[in-house]
């Protein structure tokens, strides 16, 4: 019996020593990891498959941020969504590196005024700048070909010009941009999606390029300052009521060779006041 008890004590001692060794090892690993991330205001995660880094967290002081292009000799290719949300009242500008392959979501940053979009990304994600109420202007490079939904909704943009490289837009991209007065759409866009400019009640001027073939529901509803709109000859049909143009009392201009001429004449006969104008 005594021998059995001594054996148990010995085994317990071995387990205790092993446990302490394991804990010390883990503490050492954690300390090393903390030391590594503390070298910068950004926290990085290595993708072992690609050999590139993702920024997973930011614990700096805000202000004008310049995102590093590399970390420990490896490229930084991605920034996780929401990285700056804890500092959303402090970030005033973001300069993104050319090493990025995906554009991060920079939404709900109310004092963000400037963003440098790298030419290395091809699209802007859903809600890319949604709610950025201090963002007045933005230069979009020719490398961008697509916009996700709600890209700029409720932002502070006062005017925007989309490059001809953009061939597709998302729904509600400029919805509730209540400071937007002027917009020029891309020559590569064929469809204006639903609610694109919904409730942009300061919008006074919109340039719709030749090539557009459809206008979605509520695309211009609530654009009360839009006194005139010029539709291209490539537009074979349009539901002006659904688009919100009738409710706005917007004057709709088409050319004498537009396929909408007969439709426009018929519409004017049923409206309280003529809103269709056939320009020579």
Question: Which properties best describe this structure?
Answer:
alpha/beta; 3-stranded parallel β-sheet; 2 domains; 280 residues; single chain; disordered N terminus; Leucine-rich repeat, LRR (right-handed beta-alpha superhelix)
Concise synopsis of the structure shown:
By secondary structure, the protein is an alpha/beta fold. The chain has helices at residues 2-37, 240-243, 245-248, 261-270, and strands spanning 42-47, 52-58, 63-66, 70-71, 74-79, 91-95, 114-116, 123-124, 146-147, 159-161, 182-184, 191-192, 205-207, 214-215, 228-230, 251-255, 276-279. The chain is elongated and about 70 Å long.
Strand arrangement across the biggest beta sheet: 1-2-5-4
Structural Rg: 28 Å
Helical residue percent band: 10-25%
| Strand fraction | 15-25%
Mean pLDDT: 87
CATH topology of the largest domain: Leucine-rich repeat, LRR (right-handed beta-alpha superhelix)
| CATH-level-2 architecture of the largest domain | Alpha-Beta Horseshoe
Structural class, from secondary structure content? alpha/beta
Low-confidence stretches: 1-39
Question: Which of globular, elongated, flat, extended, rod-shaped describes the shape?
Answer: elongated
- Total beta strand runs: 17
Name the CATH homologous superfamily of the largest domain.
Answer: Ribonuclease Inhibitor
The helix tally amounts to 4
Summarize the helix and strand pattern as letters.
Answer: HEEEEEEEEEEEEEEEHHEHE
What gap, in angstroms, lies between the N and C termini? 112 Å
CATH C-level of the largest domain:
Alpha Beta
Largest sheet: 4 strands, mixed
- Domains, number: 2
């Amino acid at each position: 019996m005594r021998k059995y008890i001594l054996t148990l004590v010995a085994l317990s001692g071995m387990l205790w020593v092993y446990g302490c060794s394991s804990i010390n090892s883990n503490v050492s690993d954690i300390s090393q990891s903390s030391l590594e991330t503390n070298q910068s205001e950004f926290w990085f995660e290595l993708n072992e498959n690609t050999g590139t880094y993702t920024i997973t967290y930011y614990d700096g002081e805000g202000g004008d941020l310049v995102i590093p292009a590399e970390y420990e000799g490896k490229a930084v290719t991605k920034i996780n969504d929401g990285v700056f949300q804890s500092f959303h009242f402090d970030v005033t500008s973001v300069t993104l590196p050319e090493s990025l392959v995906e554009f991060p979501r920079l939404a709900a940053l109310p004092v963000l005024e400037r963003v440098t979009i790298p030419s290395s990304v091809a699209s802007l994600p859903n809600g890319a700048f949604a709610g950025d109420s201090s963002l007045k202007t933005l230069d979009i490079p020719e490398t961008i070909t697509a916009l996700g939904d709600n890209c700029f909704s409720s932002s502070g943009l006062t005017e925007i010009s989309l490059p001809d490289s953009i061939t597709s837009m998302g729904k509600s991209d400029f919805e509730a941009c209540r400071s937007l007065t002027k917009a020029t759409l891309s020559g590569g866009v064929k469809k204006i999606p639903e609610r694109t400019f919904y409730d942009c009640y300061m919008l006074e001027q919109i340039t719709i390029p030749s090539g557009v073939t459809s206008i979605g529901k509520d695309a211009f509803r609530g654009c009360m300052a839009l006194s005139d709109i010029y539709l291209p000859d490539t537009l074979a049909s349009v539901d002006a009521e659904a688009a919100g143009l009738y409710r706005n009392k917007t004057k709709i201009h088409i050319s004498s060779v537009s396929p909408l001429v007969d439709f426009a004449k018929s519409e004017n006969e049923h409206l309280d006041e003529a809103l269709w104008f056939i320009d020579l």
